[in-house]
Amino acid sequence: MPLEQKPKSLNRGVELGPPSSGHAIRIGFTLLALHLLLLLFWTLILLCFPRTQLSLSLYLQSETQTEMMFPYRLLSLATEHFLIAAVADNFKLEKSLLIPFREIKVECTIPKDDGSLTSFIGFRVQHDNARGPMKGGIRYHPEVDPDEVNALAQLMTWKTAVANIPYGGAKGGIGCDPRELSISELERLTRVFTQKIHDLIGIHTDVPAPDMGTNAQTMAWILDEYSKFHGYSPAVVTGKPTDLGGSLGREAATGRGVLFATEALLNECGTSISKHRFVIQGFGNVGSWAAQLIHENGGKIVAVSDITGAVKNSNGIDIPSLLKHVKENRGIKGFSNADTIDSGSILVEDCDILIPAALGGVINRDNANEIKAKFIIEAANHPTDPEADEILSKRGVVILPDIYANSGGVTVSYFEWVQNIQGFMWDEEKVNNELRTYMTRGFKDMKEMCKTHSCDLRMGAFTLGVNRVARATILRGWEA
């Protein structure tokens, strides 16, 4: 059984009503106090433990890390966005929608290949289930932190609500470096973790998915171990191999969602993909699929980068050739059909549309004034920090927020779950058409919220998500 569980009362409720000025002031002071306390805590940690500073520095530079902010910063930002959205939507929201439904912490001890025993700590935070089963990835990373997992679970609640799929939010992780574990050790670790949490996840309870450091094979192990206790249950995880019920189109889903989100924005502006020049930072799964699909739809991609380097061609990069090169050489470095440029300059290259698809926090006050793009499509998780957000907004740059722009992956995960429950698999064309429908409708809903509250797209998206979760909470009668 888990070492630590903090189940939240099911009687969680909110009341409709206009926020008073006193309520808004209390929220402001609460946020300020939260920021100051957390800042003081981390300052003391860094002063007293220099090695922690080095560890955090390495963490921020990790090529696989998509949330590069400190955990306290990520959590406070998620909370801040939530509270502002709550006030904007005239909901008297107290702590009920911020406190996780359940926090799980387990110890996972496994035998290594050399016969020695080693232990890892695993987490699963189940944030909210007002709109349906909780949904979120499981990550394997040495810097997995409970505050980070908590914040990401909260963000999944709002993301699934913005996408209007019937899920709540969850997130999980194990503090390990998957690069230092053999395949058999990873399998043992995954199975032990599943044994510890199998009673707390399920088809209609909490549905995990891959995340940083995990993949379709990891999901296959979870499915198999869970099925030993509950019978064969393919819908208990998504992002599985297609041979075990995974959905066609899932691999490209986040990148394709970026394409559809961009199309929706440009259509609103009376233009199209083919009339614009793109720069893409990050050429992993999301960035490479976005590049391929944008290229196929007539967009001109003038610069791209990854962890190995960056290239530029003002006339447009030959994306099929670049994809072939990356597959053969495991990176962009050495691609001969474009000019090599400094990776640090990729965000400020001349273009119409910038797509950050790698690290978080890369757009900040140091480079925000130098960005030349008219539109930013956030394919990565929170690539734009609040100061840069304000600078870019004043300059008239339109930012399509991550909570909407990169929701294609979780949307197709929902399609996979539906197919598993129905026992009927869709063809790839149906998956892609349904994804386009959801992304297009999501943009319209977000824009309507922006018009109602005279706010930007980011706050419109958060307000939309909070609105949907709060109304589900009220309708279910979860009164405080």
From TrEMBL:
PROSITE patterns: GLFV_DEHYDROGENASE (PS00074). The active site is at K171 (proton donor). GO terms for cellular component: mitochondrion. SUPFAM superfamilies: Aminoacid dehydrogenase-like, N-terminal domain, NAD(P)-binding Rossmann-fold domains. One of its GO terms (molecular function) is nucleotide binding. SMART domains: ELFV_dehydrog. The chain crosses the membrane at residues 27-49, 70-88. GO terms for biological process: L-glutamate catabolic process. Belongs to the Glu/Leu/Phe/Val dehydrogenases family. This is Glutamate dehydrogenase.
